[in-house]
């Protein structure tokens, strides 16, 4: 019998997590307070698994039907959690709600379980500090859509047990995610801190009239994006010279002078600038076409994920 994983919250992220864990062979129980929501989630999961199978981007070694059989729905939290080795909380990003959920989970946790939150900005100390089993709590933050973007940020609280970090990382690697482990809590974790630094400069360029929204996005999707799809900024520095020390000797002074001209954070994402961007998007991505564009994005990410898996397999040969 396969090990059991419990998913708390059956929204979009909970559905993705369910499919990811099922692809790794885990028995998955998914919980929500409303029976109709649970039934809807199970239907959407089955549909997505079969679609991904047809598109050739299904993860794991078993079929869509076999993976769907591993996922069950529950409206009883204790029933969902019972016997699980790992819990993944996926409720909305509201500190009071997360606190309430983890207080409920506290009485169900054992000394061998891991209770992870999908939180994108709330660290464990903000919702789990008063728990008896707080040492079993960690953040495992995915990137949307996590089925195709594998990064997971593992963020400990100041009291999280070392074995919780090790177990979480091992589980993430087993199901094909790409975990990183922060050594301590920091606002925004890693991904959003880097992302906000990029948005900060993009927003300032918009306000100064340096580039149009379309051209700013081109800088990423046709410039930095393709490169960063395979290597990160530090390896880029290393490869763009005779090693990273040589890069710093050549370019550090110039980079410093450019950075002196950057707008100091924080930049306020003001509605006036947002309105101007929205106006420029009205012909290319009007509001009523956002769902279609999201699907287009996910399809492209699925294709990229498949390509990267193929490239990784060749690298290992």
Textual characterization of the structure:
- The protein has about 325 residues and is α/β, with parallel strands linked by helices.
- The chain is globular and about 60 Å long.
- It is about 50% helix and about 10% strand.
- Helix 1 crosses helix 2 and helix 9 packs across helix 10 (about 245-260).
- The protein has 3 domains: about 5-180, 3-Layer(aba) Sandwich (Rossmann fold); about 190-275, N-(1-d-carboxylethyl)-l-norvaline Dehydrogenase, domain 2 (Orthogonal Bundle), CATH 1.10.1040.10; about 285-315.
- The chain has an 8-stranded mixed β-sheet with strand order 3-2-1-4-5-6-7-8, sandwiched between helices.
- InterPro entries: 3-OHacyl-CoA_DH_CS (IPR006180), 3-OHacyl-CoA_DH_NAD-bd (IPR006176), 3HC_DH_C (IPR006108), 6-PGluconate_DH-like_C_sf (IPR008927), 6PGD_dom2 (IPR013328), NAD(P)-bd_dom_sf (IPR036291).
